[in-house]
Amino acid sequence: RPRVLSGIQPTSASYHLGNYLGALQQWARLQDEPYDVFYFLADLHAITLNPPDPAVLTQRSRGAAAQLLAAGVDPERSAIFLQSHVQGHTQLSWVLECLTGEGEARRMTQFKDKSGRGESVSVGLLTYPILQAADILIYQANFVPVGEDQRQHVELTRNLAQRFNGRYGETFVVPDALIPKATARVLDLQDPTSKMSKSLPDAGTLNLTDPPAVLTKKIKRATTDSETEIRYDPAAKPGVSNLVAILAAVTDQPVEQVAAGFAGQGYGALKGAVADAVVAFAEPFARSLAGYLDDPAELDRILARGAERARPIAAETVRDVYERVGFVAPV
Ligand code: TYM
């Protein structure tokens, strides 16, 4: 069966609507397809820039697992695990690092953006996308559901797979990114030229755990434009189109249909409808999340089971790769 693989960093206490509509919503839906599905929390990636306090990282990793479950990722149908629980990721990453040009790694836009912010930059930030390539290739994944900002990393992954296959013989599946259409890049509500991100001020970010009144206030204050007409036109009307795309995704309708439904109405009506729909989504999410957070032992059991499913597949790929590279097999 084709394999689906994706990861998310346990970087904050709450995921935002961009994470959900760009990635997690697809993750949950792909479980209904005839695929083998692997979703992991990229805790190794979470220490590349501004590593959190150890206790905070531990807590966020369990919190992230709970959020995946609340978003509809089902441990019966998906392997849910922590990256640090499967040794193969770093074992494969080393080989891929030796296949990647230094300049090639430096050209990654996320590296350039993050390293350009004046913070101290680790070598781990530079090799981050190579570890990501290992995350994907180690499971021979066919499909990688992600938001637009991960497209370049999946492209690098494809290049490394092809390079390895060319040099050492057919070994890796060359994966395809699955990127949603209208919500590939959910925009910040205050600054709709930037993607919604935990590193921007909170007023523009819809956190899945925000209380209803906070979500409503943020949506009502969203930046629009000086026209009055509601159209889906991301280039000319990024703020309004972002609200239309959010409403469409949360209510599972096409963007054009949502936009057409507001013909003759003003931005206030649109914002009211977006607020109602986002609140209606967030309330059951928060309830479900609280239930999972109440039982950390169960979360640990789910993560252990997920790692047990992932480990043999990862180990087999590492064995194969190490043999092809010419490392002597241990007896
Ligand atoms: P991360 O943790 O930053 O984000 C998780 C997912 O959320 C998507 N996303 C968005 N989608 C739409 N609009 C937004 N504003 C928005 N913000 C975030 C991201 O595209 C991503 O799909 N490097 C990855 C984690 C990773 C990974 C992997 C992913 C590590 N190894 C292997 C896939 C396969 C990351 O930092 O995502």
From TrEMBL:
GO cellular component assignments: cytosol
InterPro entries: aa-tRNA-synth_Ic, Rossmann-like_a/b/a_fold, Trp-tRNA-ligase, Trp-tRNA-ligase_bac-type, Trp-tRNA_synthetase
Top-rank lineage group of the source organism: Bacteria
GO BP terms: tryptophanyl-tRNA aminoacylation
Annotated residues for binding of ATP: 9-11, 18-19, 147-149, 186, 195-199
Record key words, sorted: Aminoacyl-tRNA synthetase, ATP-binding, Cytoplasm, Ligase, Nucleotide-binding, Protein biosynthesis
Position of sequence motif 'KMSKS' region: 195-199
EC number: 6.1.1.2
Any one GO MF annotation of this record: tryptophan-tRNA ligase activity
Positions with a binding annotation for L-tryptophan: 135
TM annotation in the entry: none
Pfam families: tRNA-synt_1b
Catalytic activity as recorded in UniProt: tRNA(Trp) + L-tryptophan + ATP = L-tryptophyl-tRNA(Trp) + AMP + diphosphate + H(+)
Enzyme class: ligase
Localization, UniProt: Cytoplasm
Function: Catalyzes the attachment of tryptophan to tRNA(Trp).
HAMAP family tied to this protein: Trp_tRNA_synth_B
PANTHER family associated with the record: TRYPTOPHAN--TRNA LIGASE, MITOCHONDRIAL
Complex and partners: Homodimer.
Protein name: Tryptophan--tRNA ligase
Organism of this sequence: Jatrophihabitans endophyticus
